[in-house]
Amino acid sequence: MDQRKFAITNAAGVWTILHARARHAALWKDDPAWLLTEIRWGSDWLHKMQDPQGYLYYGIDNGGSGRQKWPDPKSGEARKVWVDRHSLAVQFWFVAGQAWLARELAASDAAASGKCLAAARRCVQYCRGHFDEMNRIEADPVRKIRAPQSDMRMDVLDHYALGIAAGLEMHRATKEQEHLD
Protein backbone atom coordinates (compact mmCIF):
# COMPACT_ATOMS: atom_id res chain seq x y z
CA MET A 1 0.00 0.00 0.00
CA ASP A 2 1.34 3.43 -0.95
CA GLN A 3 1.71 5.35 2.30
CA ARG A 4 4.07 8.07 1.10
CA LYS A 5 3.04 10.91 -1.15
CA PHE A 6 4.99 14.05 -1.85
CA ALA A 7 3.95 17.33 -3.43
CA ILE A 8 6.86 17.38 -5.86
CA THR A 9 5.88 14.13 -7.59
CA ASN A 10 2.24 15.09 -7.97
CA ALA A 11 2.92 18.71 -8.99
CA ALA A 12 5.50 17.62 -11.56
CA GLY A 13 3.30 14.75 -12.75
CA VAL A 14 0.20 16.86 -13.41
CA TRP A 15 2.12 19.45 -15.44
CA THR A 16 4.32 16.91 -17.25
CA ILE A 17 1.44 14.71 -18.42
CA LEU A 18 -0.55 17.72 -19.61
CA HIS A 19 2.54 19.04 -21.40
CA ALA A 20 3.23 15.66 -23.04
CA ARG A 21 -0.39 15.40 -24.23
CA ALA A 22 -0.19 18.82 -25.85
CA ARG A 23 3.29 18.50 -27.32
CA HIS A 24 2.76 15.04 -28.75
CA ALA A 25 -0.94 15.21 -29.61
CA ALA A 26 -0.68 12.59 -32.38
CA LEU A 27 0.38 10.00 -29.81
CA TRP A 28 -2.63 10.89 -27.65
CA LYS A 29 -5.30 10.92 -30.39
CA ASP A 30 -7.22 8.19 -28.56
CA ASP A 31 -6.78 9.99 -25.24
CA PRO A 32 -7.98 7.49 -22.65
CA ALA A 33 -10.50 8.79 -20.13
CA TRP A 34 -8.51 7.23 -17.29
CA LEU A 35 -5.59 9.57 -17.99
CA LEU A 36 -7.61 12.69 -17.22
CA THR A 37 -9.02 10.88 -14.17
CA GLU A 38 -5.46 10.32 -12.93
CA ILE A 39 -4.49 13.93 -13.59
CA ARG A 40 -7.56 15.12 -11.70
CA TRP A 41 -6.80 12.76 -8.79
CA GLY A 42 -3.29 14.23 -8.53
CA SER A 43 -4.70 17.73 -8.70
CA ASP A 44 -7.32 17.04 -6.02
CA TRP A 45 -4.63 15.60 -3.74
CA LEU A 46 -2.49 18.71 -4.24
CA HIS A 47 -5.45 20.90 -3.25
CA LYS A 48 -5.50 19.04 0.09
CA MET A 49 -1.78 19.74 0.47
CA GLN A 50 -2.23 23.48 -0.05
CA ASP A 51 -2.03 25.58 3.08
CA PRO A 52 -4.81 28.19 3.44
CA GLN A 53 -2.07 30.82 2.88
CA GLY A 54 -1.49 29.37 -0.60
CA TYR A 55 1.75 27.38 -0.45
CA LEU A 56 2.13 23.59 -0.79
CA TYR A 57 3.11 21.33 2.08
CA TYR A 58 5.86 18.78 1.59
CA GLY A 59 3.86 15.58 1.74
CA ILE A 60 2.68 12.57 3.74
CA ASP A 61 4.98 9.95 5.21
CA ASN A 62 4.01 7.44 7.91
CA GLY A 63 7.60 7.04 9.04
CA GLY A 64 8.73 10.58 8.46
CA SER A 65 9.18 13.64 10.57
CA GLY A 66 5.78 15.17 9.93
CA ARG A 67 4.63 17.60 12.58
CA GLN A 68 0.90 17.17 12.10
CA LYS A 69 -1.18 14.05 11.72
CA TRP A 70 -4.08 13.38 9.38
CA PRO A 71 -6.18 10.21 9.46
CA ASP A 72 -5.69 7.69 6.68
CA PRO A 73 -9.00 7.61 4.76
CA LYS A 74 -9.11 3.80 4.69
CA SER A 75 -7.60 2.66 7.98
CA GLY A 76 -8.14 5.74 10.14
CA GLU A 77 -4.52 5.49 11.31
CA ALA A 78 -2.66 8.74 11.86
CA ARG A 79 -0.36 9.72 9.02
CA LYS A 80 2.38 12.26 9.49
CA VAL A 81 2.14 15.32 7.29
CA TRP A 82 5.09 17.54 6.55
CA VAL A 83 3.53 20.96 6.75
CA ASP A 84 6.79 22.72 5.95
CA ARG A 85 6.57 24.97 2.92
CA HIS A 86 7.91 23.33 -0.21
CA SER A 87 10.46 25.03 -2.48
CA LEU A 88 9.65 27.82 -4.91
CA ALA A 89 10.29 25.46 -7.80
CA VAL A 90 7.59 23.06 -6.61
CA GLN A 91 5.20 25.96 -6.02
CA PHE A 92 5.80 27.01 -9.63
CA TRP A 93 5.19 23.48 -10.91
CA PHE A 94 1.92 23.45 -8.99
CA VAL A 95 0.84 26.81 -10.46
CA ALA A 96 1.71 25.74 -14.01
CA GLY A 97 -0.20 22.46 -13.70
CA GLN A 98 -3.26 23.99 -12.05
CA ALA A 99 -3.49 26.79 -14.62
CA TRP A 100 -3.16 24.32 -17.48
CA LEU A 101 -5.73 21.95 -15.97
CA ALA A 102 -8.11 24.89 -15.46
CA ARG A 103 -7.92 25.54 -19.22
CA GLU A 104 -8.41 21.85 -20.01
CA LEU A 105 -11.51 21.58 -17.82
CA ALA A 106 -13.09 24.96 -18.63
CA ALA A 107 -15.55 23.61 -21.21
CA SER A 108 -16.41 20.30 -19.52
CA ASP A 109 -16.33 21.07 -15.78
CA ALA A 110 -16.44 24.77 -14.91
CA ALA A 111 -16.48 24.10 -11.14
CA ALA A 112 -13.31 21.98 -11.23
CA SER A 113 -11.69 24.47 -13.59
CA GLY A 114 -12.47 27.30 -11.19
CA LYS A 115 -11.10 25.32 -8.24
CA CYS A 116 -7.81 24.73 -10.07
CA LEU A 117 -7.46 28.35 -11.08
CA ALA A 118 -8.30 29.58 -7.57
CA ALA A 119 -5.64 27.26 -6.11
CA ALA A 120 -3.09 28.54 -8.63
CA ARG A 121 -3.96 32.17 -7.84
CA ARG A 122 -3.56 31.59 -4.08
CA CYS A 123 -0.15 30.04 -4.67
CA VAL A 124 0.96 32.87 -6.97
CA GLN A 125 -0.17 35.45 -4.42
CA TYR A 126 1.72 33.68 -1.64
CA CYS A 127 4.91 33.31 -3.71
CA ARG A 128 4.83 36.95 -4.77
CA GLY A 129 4.39 38.07 -1.18
CA HIS A 130 7.16 35.82 0.13
CA PHE A 131 9.52 35.55 -2.85
CA ASP A 132 12.52 37.29 -1.29
CA GLU A 133 12.16 35.34 1.93
CA MET A 134 11.73 31.99 0.14
CA ASN A 135 14.56 32.70 -2.26
CA ARG A 136 16.86 33.68 0.62
CA ILE A 137 16.02 30.50 2.57
CA GLU A 138 16.52 28.25 -0.43
CA ALA A 139 19.66 29.70 -2.00
CA ASP A 140 22.93 28.13 -0.91
CA PRO A 141 26.50 29.34 -1.56
CA VAL A 142 26.97 27.02 -4.53
CA ARG A 143 24.14 28.80 -6.38
CA LYS A 144 21.80 25.85 -6.08
CA ILE A 145 18.21 25.88 -4.88
CA ARG A 146 17.53 23.72 -1.84
CA ALA A 147 14.13 23.07 -0.35
CA PRO A 148 13.97 23.53 3.44
CA GLN A 149 14.15 20.27 5.43
CA SER A 150 15.50 18.40 2.42
CA ASP A 151 18.73 17.64 0.63
CA MET A 152 17.01 17.83 -2.77
CA ARG A 153 18.77 20.34 -5.02
CA MET A 154 17.71 22.01 -8.23
CA ASP A 155 19.83 24.10 -10.54
CA VAL A 156 19.00 27.77 -10.51
CA LEU A 157 18.14 27.52 -14.21
CA ASP A 158 15.43 24.94 -13.43
CA HIS A 159 14.08 27.17 -10.69
CA TYR A 160 13.67 30.15 -13.00
CA ALA A 161 12.43 28.01 -15.90
CA LEU A 162 9.59 26.70 -13.74
CA GLY A 163 8.77 30.26 -12.67
CA ILE A 164 8.52 31.26 -16.33
CA ALA A 165 6.36 28.21 -17.10
CA ALA A 166 4.04 29.12 -14.22
CA GLY A 167 3.71 32.70 -15.48
CA LEU A 168 3.04 31.58 -19.04
CA GLU A 169 0.41 29.04 -17.98
CA MET A 170 -1.32 31.61 -15.75
CA HIS A 171 -1.36 34.04 -18.67
CA ARG A 172 -2.78 31.39 -21.00
CA ALA A 173 -5.50 30.57 -18.46
CA THR A 174 -6.40 34.15 -17.48
CA LYS A 175 -5.15 36.40 -20.30
CA GLU A 176 -3.89 38.71 -17.52
CA GLN A 177 -0.73 40.63 -18.43
CA GLU A 178 0.61 40.62 -14.85
CA HIS A 179 1.63 36.97 -15.22
CA LEU A 180 4.06 37.86 -17.99
CA ASP A 181 5.83 40.50 -15.89
Structure summarized in a few sentences:
The protein is α+β, with helices and mostly antiparallel strands.
Strands, helices and their partners?
Layout: E1 5-6, H1 7-23, H2 33-48, E2 57-60, E3 68-71, E4 78-85, H3 88-105, H4 110-138, E5 144-146, E6 153-155, H5 156-174
Antiparallel strand pairs: 1-2, 2-4, 3-4, 5-6
What can you tell me about this protein's structure?
- This protein has 181 residues and is α+β, with helices and mostly antiparallel strands.
- It is built from 5 helices and 6 strands, in the order βααβββααββα.
Structural class: alpha+beta
Rg computed from alpha carbons, rounded to a whole number of angstroms: 16 Å
| Physical arrangement of strands within the biggest beta sheet | 1-2-4-3
In DSSP terms (H or I, runs of 4 or more residues), the helix count works out at 5
Strand content: 5-15%
pLDDT < 50 runs, ≥5 residues: 139-153
H/E order of the elements? EHHEEEHHEEH
Characterize the main sheet.
Answer: 4 strands, antiparallel
Proportion of helical residues? 40-55%
Shape: globular
